[in-house]
Amino acid sequence: MKILVPVKRVVDYNIKVRVKSDGSGMDIANVKMSMNPFDEIAIEEAVRLKEKGGSVTEIVAVSCGVAQSQETLRTALAIGADRAILVETAEELQPLAVAKLLKALVDKEQPGLVIMGKQAIDDDANQTGQMLAALADCAQATFASKVELAADAVTVTREVDGGLETDTLTLPAVITTDLRLNEPRYVTLPNIMKAKKKQLDVVKPEDLGVDIAPRLKTLKVAEPAARKAGVVVPDVATLVEKLKNEAKVI
Ligand code: AMP
Asked: The Electron transfer flavoprotein alpha/beta-subunit N-terminal domain covers which part of the protein (predicted)?
């Protein structure tokens, strides 16, 4: 069975991004870019499932975006993906467009499982996995914290508000990863070298017959309001007095 893992190139999670002065978006020129952390977890999980020696035969990493997303795909190959596909475009890609591109690749590659991040940390959309499952008309389990794969089904433990929920899905299925699913391995130098030789195909959205035109328009992006500095109080009595008489919340 093949596992497809979509990986997005995003601003590195350590970078503090700034809003452009005209409020039209974030200024991401010349900032460090990395693989979306939830996608790293997705690749790690796919590699672990393959290493268990079950029915997984191949892991295909996919990225949609600019040519530099090849770097992200090479990281996925170094973690252990076997092959990669870049759907290259310089156009803005919204979740629906990505889901349609992934659906076209699902039709072509026929994976038994798609494992992807629950959300991309740049736009925090949390939409692509759900949209892909709907478009591909297959089962989905979001926010996975445990994945157990059998021959024709997958059992997923999900993090929900009240605790944990366990679902068994028939394959093919889409799973989105939560933070506690696993801790991705460090990428070693020999594996980075090996990854350079692995197959990476580049296709265009037109080759897949997908209309990627944006459907949503961003009207304005603004910084959050600045917070007032806090004060350190010497004891609980002073805290209670301030809450009562200054903040007037008790
Ligand atoms: P989002 O719905 O944008 O929060 O993204 C959820 C997940 O969809 C990500 O964690 C990725 O696995 C996948 N994804 C989103 N955008 C892309 C992209 N441009 N290329 C590949 N995968 C993507």
From this structure: 23-212
Q: 26-82: per-residue pLDDT in tens?
A: 999 899 999 999 999 999 999 999 999 889 999 999 999 999 999 999 999 999 999
| Average pLDDT over the chain, rounded to an integer | 96
pLDDT tens, 169-212? Answer: 999 999 999 999 999 999 999 999 999 999 999 999 999 999 99
Residue 122 Cα to ligand 1 midpoint, Å, equals 10
> Could you tell me if the CB of 98 is within 6 A of ligand 1?
yes
Bridge partners of 154, per DSSP, are 149, 169
Rounded distance from Cα 30 to ligand 1 centre (Å): 21
Judge if the beta carbon of residue 85 lies within 6 A of ligand 1.
no
CATH number where 90 lies: 3.40.50.620
Q: Is 211 exposed, middle or buried (0-12, 13-18, 19+ CB in 10 A)?
A: exposed
Q: Which atom of ligand 1 lies at the shortest distance from residue 119's CA?
A: 4
Parent domain of 22 = 2-246
Q: Give yes or no for residue 126 CB within 6 A of ligand 1.
A: yes
Q: Is the CB of 175 under 6 A from ligand 1?
A: no
Q: Is the pTM value of this prediction over 0.90?
A: yes
> Comparing C-alpha atoms, which of 208, 191, 162, 225 is closest to residue 81?
191
Q: What is the domain count for the chain?
A: 1
Among 66, 57, 64, which Cα is nearest to 116's?
Answer: 64
Q: How far is CA 1 from CA 5, 56, 198, in A?
A: 13, 5, 19
Ligand 1 touching residue 19 (CB < 6 A): no
Q: How confident is the model at residue 227 (pLDDT cuts 50, 70, 90)?
A: confident
